[in-house]
Design a protein that fits this description.
Strand order of the largest sheet: 1-2-4-3-7-11-8-9
Radius of gyration: 20 Å
Distance between the termini: 19 Å
CATH topology: Aminopeptidase
Largest sheet: 8 strands, mixed
Number of domains: 1
Helix content: 25-40%
Order of helices and strands: HHEHHEEHHEEEHEHEHEHEHEEEH
Shape: globular
């Protein structure tokens, strides 16, 4: 993009500068910077400003940098059968949406890389209402989607030599008169049924339909999803690592490698059939929480894995401890971090371009 040329280091700017980055590298760094800042800006907006309706407008503005944007509104989603996503937002006066962002950096039909994000613009918990002190920060519950948006923006700005798609589910989880109830049973886009035992375990419901749709429509090389999914991952890893759950060792090792390189670190957590059994339901194919207790972030990931139907390499990043920093650090002064934009750009650059 031509505006990225504005801040480039010119030969006359500093003749003593050693190891001056090339113009190509400067454009890449600037694109990643803009993607990261865009993600931070989205996360930092209060819930009364960045609700799902407004969010879709901002995503449509990315058409001008070469992204193909498609917005599926509630009418379309109902026709498609995306009932787990729609159920989360049915108590809100705002609309619910699925938005796809496609970048075609290769002139061929090679399989795209797919990135899926949770976009709960504000999370009250729904009928399973959160205590007030745990609700005030829930404008950040769309950080996974913001990372995907920031990544797609940076790929387009730096004209990455790759085909990629970003998919975000945008909802608001409110306790209105039409809100989803504990005990409801919902049929997902995949056809699998889910018993809703707790309406505050909503992010996985949004991701479930988005994951199945992404795998079915795009048949990608891999899927990486990002979500501020569980408080349990903060208990496990604090604010040092995102939790990594995956069905694929190769993809996991790539993410661990680029996490070390970018200082956006991930730590692989376990998945297995015994954890998976904990979300079995007597009334549906599965339930949305584990009432046995423990392993909350793992059973949430097991839930998501059930919606990867065709053995596509998949990784889930639980970024609940990484999306927001109370005290700041070397790369931000506090608040929204934009975690994952640099990580995933590096994944694309090192392994897929």
């Amino acid at each position: 993009d031509t505006h990225l040329q504005d801040d480039l280091i010119k030969p006359s700017d500093n003749n003593n500068l050693k190891n001056k980055p090339s113009v190509k590298d400067q454009i890449k760094f600037k694109a990643i910077e803009e993607g990261t800042f865009f993600a931070r800006d989205l996360v930092s907006e209060p819930g009364n400003i960045l609700h799902p309706d407004e969010y879709t407008k901002r995503l449509n503005s990315l058409k001008k940098i070469g992204l193909k944007i498609t917005v599926y509104d509630e009418k379309k989603l109902k026709k498609m059968g995306m009932n787990t996503l729609l159920g989360v937002g049915q108590g809100s006066i705002r609309g619910s949406y699925l938005v796809t962002m496609e970048w075609k950096g290769l002139n061929n039909n090679s399989k795209p890389l797919a990135f899926v994000g949770k976009g709960v613009c504000f999370d009250t918990g729904g009928i399973s209402l959160k205590p007030a002190k745990f609700m005030e920060d829930m404008t950040y519950d769309m950080a996974g989607s913001a990372t995907v948006v920031g990544l797609m923006k940076s790929l387009a700005l730096r004209k990455a030599k790759v085909n990629a798609v970003g998919v975000v589910g945008l909802v608001e989880n409110m306790p209105g008169g039409n809100a989803q109830r504990p005990g409801d049973i919902v049929k997902s886009y995949s056809g699998k049924t889910v018993e809703i035992l707790n309406t505050d375990a909503e992010g996985r419901l949004v991701l479930a339909d988005a994951l199945t749709y992404t795998e079915e429509k795009y048949k990608p090389k891999f899927i990486v999803d990002l979500a501020t999914l569980t408080g349990a991952i903060i208990v496990s890893l604090g604010s040092e690592y995102a939790g990594l759950f995956s069905n694929d060792d190769k993809l996991s090792n790539q993410l661990i490698d680029v996490g070390e390189k970018t200082e956006e670190k991930v730590w692989r957590m376990p998945l297995n059939k015994n954890f998976d059994k904990l979300i079995d339901s007597k009334n549906a194919d599965m339930q949305n929480i584990n009432y046995v207790g423990g392993a909350g972030s793992t059973t949430a990931a097991q839930f998501l894995q059930r919606f990867i139907l065709n053995k596509t390499p998949w990784a889930h990043l639980d970024i609940a401890g990484m999306a927001f920093s109370k005290y700041g650090g070397a790369l931000n002064s506090g608040g929204a971090t934009g975690y994952g934009v640099r990580l995933l750009n590096k994944l694309v650059e090192d392994y897929y371009e």
